[in-house]
Write a structure and sequence with these properties.
CATH topology of one domain: Nuclear Transport Factor 2, Chain: A
Keywords: Membrane, Mitochondrion, Mitochondrion inner membrane, Transit peptide, Transmembrane, Transmembrane helix
Strand content: 15-25%
Bound molecules: 2-acetamido-2-deoxy-beta-D-glucopyranose
Subcellular location: Mitochondrion inner membrane
Structural class: alpha+beta
Helix content: 40-55%
Order of helices and strands: HHHHHHHEEEEE
CATH architecture of one domain: Roll
Number of strands: 5
Number of helices: 7
Largest sheet: 5 strands, antiparallel
Distance between the termini: 105 Å
Pfam family, one: Tim44
GO molecular function, one term: protein-folding chaperone binding
CATH class of one domain: Alpha Beta
Family: Belongs to the Tim44 family.
């Protein structure tokens, strides 16, 4: 008896539900029913959209269809997250300057920079010894170039020849970094082993010792305009350690 009544109630509820469903589907399909029949579906759709939007806000959401526009938000937020995380250079020398450079130039990477600086060091030391001003020119600022070119010219006038053998770079470390305006400055301390000998016209040694490997420390500052598309750094200052 009780189960029979329950069955009827359940069946009645199902029937009522189906009628409502049918009406809303028909209302949607034929479209001539006006706002009232259509409304429940529309509100349901709105509610789902709101829920989806809330879900996206909380967990990044999944890309699909019309949500494509929104998908860019997590992307750009991800970039911002990288920007915040990347400039954490701890307490390495020049950390604050490196952070400012990184914010101005997101491509900047201190380790890659040091690799490039080592290559530049080898090229510049070699080209200077050979008196190769053409190779030096794009690597040096105007001031440094005029110093180097002047020394090369003096050597030529004196009939001297410089022979530098770069045995190896023992270390190359960033010791300072700064961003002034849009220009990034990074100072590197190079410790290298070189055989550095100057010969006169007759091939006699006038300076240095061909059999001696010297350990030489150079402090070089490189600069780059972070607004420029030119990725190259140039040597803007040289110094000996104090
Ligand atoms: C090599 O020797 C020349 C003079 O002989 C000197 O001007 C130059 O600074 C030296 N280079 C290094 C790296 O010590
Ligand atoms: C840096 O590069 C930008 C874009 O090329 C240029 O407008 C600006 O004058 C440069 N700044 C310096 C200091 O050279
Ligand atoms: C940067 O340096 C490279 C290698 O020296 C050179 O080939 C290139 O032309 C330079 N780029 C610009 C924009 O000067």
């Amino acid at each position: 008896m009780g189960t029979g009544l329950l069955d009827i109630i359940i069946l009645g509820a199902i029937a009522a539900f189906l009628v409502l469903r049918l009406r809303s589907v028909l209302g949607k399909r034929t479209g001539h029913q006006g706002g009232r029949e259509y409304d429940p579906f529309h509100q349901e759709q709105m509610r789902r959209r709101q829920e989806q939007a809330r879900g996206r806000g909380e967990q990044g959401g999944e890309p699909s269809g019309e949500e494509d526009k929104v998908v860019h938000l997590p992307d750009s937020r991800g970039d911002a997250g990288r920007e915040e995380a990347a400039p954490d250079y701890g307490d390495r020398p020049g950390a604050a300057g490196l952070t400012r450079i990184k914010l101005a130039d997101r491509e900047f990477d201190p380790d890659q920079f040091v690799q490039g600086a080592r290559a530049a060091f080898e090229m510049i030391v070699g080209a200077f010894a050979q008196g190769d001003a053409k190779t030096l020119r794009p690597l040096l600022s105007d001031d440094v170039y005029s110093d180097f070119a002047g020394a090369i010219e003096q050597r030529r006038e004196a009939g001297e020849r410089l022979e530098t053998t770069l045995v190896g770079i023992k270390s190359a470390d960033i010791v300072d970094a700064d961003l002034r305006g849009k220009t990034a400055f990074v100072t590197v301390k190079f410790v290298s082993e070189q055989v550095n000998v100057t010969y006169d016209e007759e091939g006699r040694v006038v300076d240095g010792d061909p059999s001696e490997v010297e350990t030489i420390t150079d402090i070089w500052t490189f600069a780059r305009n972070t607004s420029s598309r030119d990725p190259n750094w140039s040597l803007v200052a040289t110094a000996a350690p104090n």
